[in-house]
Amino acid sequence: MNALSTWKLEDLPPDQAPVALAIAVLVGLLYAFLGYRLLKFFIGFTGFLIAGAVATLLAGWLSAGHMIAMAACGLLGGLCGAMALFFLYKTGIFAIGFLGAFLAAFSLLQGRPETWIPWAIIGLALAGGLLALFLERAAMTLATAAIGSWLVTNAALLLFLQSNSAALWNEKLTAQQQSWTLIALWGLVACLGAGVQFFGGPGSGNDEEE
Hints:
Blueprint: H1 2-6, H2 17-34, H3 39-62, H4 67-87, H5 89-109, H6 117-134, H7 136-161, H8 166-172, H9 175-199
Helix pairs in contact: 2-7, 2-9, 3-4, 3-5, 4-5, 5-6, 5-7, 6-7, 7-9
């Protein structure tokens, strides 16, 4: 478990970390701007991410952080999660709504000292998942825009922090200013993504119940 708890992005070979982050930015852009048009794909992909992450953490705990075991279990768990959500359509809708609301609430409320904050985040996430079941297109558009923009802004920030200009981020901005800057960028990308999805043309025919 020690290897898992101490692993950092910097542990990747220098030529692999930027590639992984660039892929995350690309996936985030697809989520944010094409989320509802590619809803079935993203339902499966969300299942892959959630189940894969859980399987990876569980494997890391059981194998004391053995990377090969974690990778294998993460891949297998992700495939199972993708298939589960793909065939259980409404469960996938709930999962994306839950994840989108969770990331939005977490981005806005993180760092606050109140003890009720974790419960508020979970409550808002559950509300987002339930709302998605009744207002599918609107909720899915907003949720995928929120998820995609979170991936884009965080991966882009990590890419920036690996550059020679990273010192400016820490020198010119306080921790609170960094947090609000990231939130503002996340909100901007989310609004752009949602706007493109809402007004960029008709949906992809995912409104029908399966």
